[in-house]
Amino acid sequence: xxxxxxxxxxxxxxxxxxxxxxxxxxxxxxxxxxxxxxxxxxxxxxxxxxxxxxxxxxxxxxxxxxxxxxxxxxxxxxxxxxxxxxxxxxxxxxxxxxxxxxxxxxxxxxxxxxxxxxxxxxxxxxxxxxxxxxxxxxxxxxxxxxxxxxxxxxxxxxxxxxxxxxxxxxxxxxxxxxxxxxxxxxxxxxxxxxxxxxxxxxxxxxxxxxxxxxxxxxxxxxxxxxxxxxxxxxxxxxxxxxxxxxxxxxxxxxxxxxxxxxxxxxxxxxxxxxxxxxxxxxxxxxxxxxxxx
Length: 293
Fold this sequence. Notes:
The chain has helices at residues 2-9, 18-39, 97-184, 209-217, 257-270, and strands spanning 233-239, 245-252, 285-289. It is mainly alpha-helical. The radius of gyration is 81 Å and the shape is rod-shaped. It starts with a helix and ends with a strand. Residues 42-48 and 185-193 have low confidence and may be disordered.
């Protein structure tokens, strides 16, 4: 303790006002810090409590003059912060070339599909019109054919009616002529009331008429079979006034069917019988035929 006291006694005197200078310095720094804090809009207050300290020395020491701090210059007013610009409107990213090509290809395919569909519809419409036209033409042709068939049928019916009328007229005319002939030329006929002859008196065929019939019919008989005996086939024949054969029938069979058929075919082939010596053809007649005569 004595050594420290002795040392202080011989030390230079302390500079007066050091503590005040330190307090002022601290105060100036505090004010500067507060100004800077206010300039940047700090929201936090910094409070610094000045502290005082007293130093006691064994000998009074004069304090040095206080350091004169320059007055702080007023800070220029801080410009107000400009409002932030509105955020840019988001712009859709430009489509890639591949996407554009795909979209164009899709549009092209849709358009091509639409054109194909329209073409198909147009084709169906034209085909429908063509079928309707064909149906109309077919109906018209069928009607024309039906009309032609009807006209042909009517014409054929008229011709048939005309022919029938002519035949009936001819028959009536022939019947009228026969009636006139019977009433005028055959007034002296001696036949019965039911007689159908045309002569004044009944008379049979001449003696040579049978031979004339054989001579007319037999060349038309075709028969090559060899039979036993000489069987007879009797045929009844009816003719018109001019000798045309109207009907024939087998009145008596020979017992040999082949000979009977040959005789009937020969009579059909002969068709017309010869007239008798008096110029007429007796009817009906029964003619006998033997294969070996």
